[in-house]
Design goal:
Blueprint: H1 11-36, H2 48-52, H3 66-80, H4 99-110, H5 122-139, E1 146-150, H6 153-171, H7 176-179, E2 189-191, H8 197-205, E3 214-215, H9 226-236, E4 241-246, H10 258-266, E5 270-275, E6 300-304, E7 316-320, H11 323-329, H12 360-395, E8 399-401, E9 412-414, H13 421-438, E10 445-448, E11 451-454, H14 465-482
Helix pairs in contact: 4-12, 5-12, 6-8, 6-11, 9-10, 12-14, 13-14
Bound molecules: pyridoxal-5'-phosphate (PLP).
Length: about 475
């Protein structure tokens, strides 16, 4: 009998084990900083590139070890990082973190949770099922719809529209996910001018084409021309089509007429997808629920968590009425994977990602910790902040509100008087850049129709009235300085 080989030296892996134990002590202080001082730190660090240029170095042959690498990282984050969980980030639609969600997300990372299938994470997978049920209950989405967690609204739109594409093919007797789109006609896609850039990206990913979308615009802002939309549906003459309803657009927080679009689409052979990335949270408050009434009749719905649910990035959810379509659009089968007819949950086989992190921890924890009532209060707090800010704009002689405020976004511009629209556009664009360079707030510009506007979005529980009062003062002071 031959001898077994002697055990090799384990110096390197022994070192890693020791480092893993030391990690907790090292990170405790960082966590104190990250969690304890969120309110005080500015939104942005000045001139981050001057700090981050130092990242460009060759791959080291001999590493510096975990402690030194992490110290460097912590230092870079402190000197160049954005405080996006903080109370003064109003660009895009950026949510905060509830303490329960933040803690749960850290726990998911600490245990390196995978949620591909029940066997690798019984907790994560069951928790996803439960958290999605709670989300449906919170948002008024029918319990019969099947949900899956993804990275954000872009991928949730991808899920909804991949199912729409599968349905559209099956309507005509072919399986798009098996045979592709080559040689097939184009799927009609109809929406308003409120459609989000993420939808275009998804249409390009799905081979439908980002420019192959018909927007029925009544005006320069992109409001739906309902009559033209209905005529276009009539002209389809029964051919299957995808209709996208935008429940919350990013420039002023406005909504497509959800119920009217739904009624029209339901008179025809349409798949109706609702993009409610942040707007679906209107359903949480009786003050705004009317904005999304009718969305419960959709075939697929997109909701983001890292926006108004206030769970950490990245976290989004797709809900689809026909469960079988999800399985057929995202089929994932191999001999070593769970069988397709296994009744136990495998979220990795009904959505785009196979291996997935434990997003469900944060969603479950925040809903468990604060419940329906807490999340309604969170949403209504942001609605109040938006209304307070709109009031500040309305009463300030050098600020001009540019749109109604149905939800949590206030479109406005700096207008000191005496300048025409073109000069105001240039002034506000320059002011936007100056605000970014200053970094106290994260605030940017967009276009509302032809006009350049600021469009702060309020979706973080940390934002106080004082923060938006300070925003008004800073913006006016910097605007005057530019004149
Ligand atoms: C309406 C809408 N849809 C889609 C997206 C894309 O979301 P995400 O960045 O989470 O993928 C956004 C982001 O702001 C959005 O507002």
């Amino acid at each position: 009998m031959t001898d077994l080989p002697a055990h090799p030296e384990h110096a390197f892996t022994d070192e890693l084990r020791a480092e893993a134990l030391a990690l907790v002590t090292q990170l405790r202080e960082t966590l104190d900083q990250a969690v304890g001082h969120v309110d005080e730190r500015p939104a942005l660090c000045p001139d981050p590139d001057s700090v981050l240029d130092a990242l460009e170095e060759p791959l080291p042959d001999a590493g510096v070890g975990a402690r030194a690498a992490l110290e460097r990282l912590i230092d870079l984050q402190a000197r160049a990082g954005a405080n996006t969980a903080g109370p003064r980030c109003f660009h895009f639609v950026i949510g905060g973190n509830t303490p329960a969600a933040h803690g749960a997300d850290l726990i998911a990372t600490a245990f390196d949770v995978i949620t591909y299938t029940w066997v690798v994470s019984p907790v994560g997978v069951r928790m996803e099922t439960q958290a999605l049920q709670w989300l449906k209950s919170l948002l008024g989405i029918p319990q019969s719809m099947q949900g899956v967690m993804v990275t954000g609204a872009t991928m949730a739109n991808f899920v909804g529209m991949a199912c729409a594409r599968q349905w559209w093919g099956e309507q005509q007797g072919f399986d798009v996910s098996a045979s592709g789109l080559s040689g097939r006609p184009q799927m009609p896609v109809l929406t308003s001018g409120y459609v989000h850039a993420a939808t275009r990206k998804v249409l390009s990913l799905l081979g439908i084409g980002r420019d192959h979308i018909r927007e029925f615009r009544a005006d320069a802002r992109g409001r739906l021309d309902l009559e033209a939309f209905e005529s276009a549906l009539d002209a389809l003459d029964g051919a299957p089509a995808l209709v996208i309803i935008n429940a919350g657009e990013v420039n002023a927080g406005d909504f497509d007429p959800v119920a009217a679009m739904m009624d029209a689409a339901r008179r025809h052979n349409c798949w109706v997808h609702v993009d409610g990335a942040f707007g679906l949270f209107a359903a949480v408050s009786p003050r705004t629920a009317h904005l999304v009434a009718g969305m419960e009749r959709a075939d697929s719905i997109t909701v983001d968590g890292h926006k108004w649910l206030n769970v950490p990035y990245d976290s989004g959810y797709a809900f689809v009425r026909d469960h079988g379509l999800m399985a057929r659009a995202f089929r994932y089968s191999a001999d070593y994977l769970p069988a397709e007819d296994d009744p136990r949950p495998t979220p990795g086989a009904i959505g785009p990602e196979s291996s997935r992190r434990g997003r469900s921890f944060a969603v479950w924890a925040t809903l468990k910790a604060y419940g329906r009532d807490g999340h309604r209060r969170l949403v209504e707090h942001c609605l109040d902040v938006a209304q307070h800010f709109a009031g500040l704009v309305d009463t300030h002689p050098e600020l001009e509100r540019m749109a109604e405020v149905p939800l949590n976004i206030v479109a406005f511009r700096f207008n000191p008087g005496g300048l025409d629209d073109a000069r105001l556009d240039a002034l506000n664009a320059a002011l936007g850049e100056a605000m970014i360079a200053d970094g106290t707030f994260l605030l940017g510009t967009s276009r509302l129709g032809p006009r350049t506007v600021f469009r702060p979005a309020f979706s973080n529980w940390r934002t106080r009235f004082e923060d938006v009062e300070a925003l008004t003062e800073t913006l006016v002071r910097m605007g005057r300085a530019l004149l």
